[in-house]
Amino acid sequence: MRIQCPFCGERDSSEFTYLGDATVRRPDPSAPEQYFEAVYLRDNPAGRHEELWYHGFGCRSWLRVTRDTRTHEIFTVEMYNDATTETNQEAARA
Amino acid sequence: MRYSIFSLMRQALRGHRDWTPAWRDAVPKPAYDVIIVGGGGHGLATAHYLSKVHGITRVAVLEKGWIGSGNAGRNTTIIRSNYLLSGNVPFYEFSMRLWEGLEQDLNYNAMVSQRGILNLYHSDAQRDAYARRGNAMRMHGIDAELLDANAVRRIAPFMDFDNARFPIQGGLLQRRGGTARHDAVVWGYARAASDRGVDIIQNCEVTGFIREAGRIAGVTTSRGEIKAAKIGLAVAGNTSRLTNLAGLRLPIESHVLQAFVSESIKPRIPGVITFGAGHFYVSQSDKGGLVFGGDIDGYNSYAQRGNLPTVEDVCEGGMAVIPSLGRVRVLRSWGGVMDMSMDGSPIIDRTPLSGLYLNTGWCYGGFKATPASGWCFAHLLARDELHEVGRDYRLDRFAIGHLIDEKGVGAQPNLH
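Structure tokens for the assembled complex are given below, as produced in the milestone run.
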């Protein structure tokens, strides 16, 4: 599996560290019961999965990768704190 | 047909013409008392104990492929009960005791071989950790011996004891641990369950759930609708796919684990040996191949195949502990989809959906648990209560903070 880093180009996946589901949001501190869902529950889809990878042996950026969990095919890779991503726009509005 | 030395001799004299199929390949009926989804070791063991211990025989085991084609046919066949935490110790020791009587119970040769499992330690701190683990085991009546380097040398002299980075200082030995023949376990349970009237239905994929009066009342499958009062899921890495159909999110991620087998060589590895400074475990099959594995790949996957960096990592671990492995060629590698839970321990429990029961979260340690998993799941399905030895494997333990985290790495499934 090779990941197309927006800064370093196509690199072997062993240069990256996997964190997991990128759609998990840190809950509102005033609603602690939501932490259970954020910490433990996952959609775990068979198919398209948005996930976080850290390019530790490269540019040390956090990347948001959309990948098919059935085939390991990678559709998109973008920098995680890119304000153009939909979820971050939602977060910015909130 | 009951198997024995006499039936074998009788068949040998007749040219083996009269053997009958070991189990019935059934067609689905419209309704059952219990449906078990998943015809692997855990599902078939559940069916066996439901029929034998609880007398419930209107049971169907639904399998989307052929039985034993998932993780039951993809593991490294290790059995052991060398756990530390109180939630795990009684359960895995119960499983070990069931392994010890399995062949007599099933009248089937599962090739259970208690050749011992040896966990190597490479530092003073690791020796202390293994001493603690061994003491926890012995306090529960489980055998454990802490060996020094000389004692380990007598068991496995071919290892790299004076490795500059990972010298072998000793090991924790559980002599009752060992291996079993994974396919025979599946077939043995299938045969015993089928003999009592359980329907084993292959090529029958569950595509949805039928809801009636607020409860799950059946499943839709690729072979039509099937009703049942109770439905148990024992589908390992595919658990989330099924519960997503019912609108239930779980503390589970699916990850791929690879395993390997080498060409056959003469007897070399005396039992199961695990490397303590990396992650590598190896045993030798009766056919002579070295069966070994290591870490999961570490990213969500349903692919049943992994990537090369993990292959390299596993082989490096093997070379660090047994340098002569470098002269052996790898014959095959394969991958299976693991149901990695958020604390590294399994879940055998009811769900918030009435009629739906869960057996999941085995991470990559499900094979050794097969008998106890089936026993406890059958108990749950028959009596609607958790079995005593599995009472901590609750689904709500994540919400209430009663985690069973052997490795102590927290809610990060790819690290368990």
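The radius of gyration of chain A is 14 Å. Chain A is about 15% helix and 35% strand. Further analysis is deferred to the final report.
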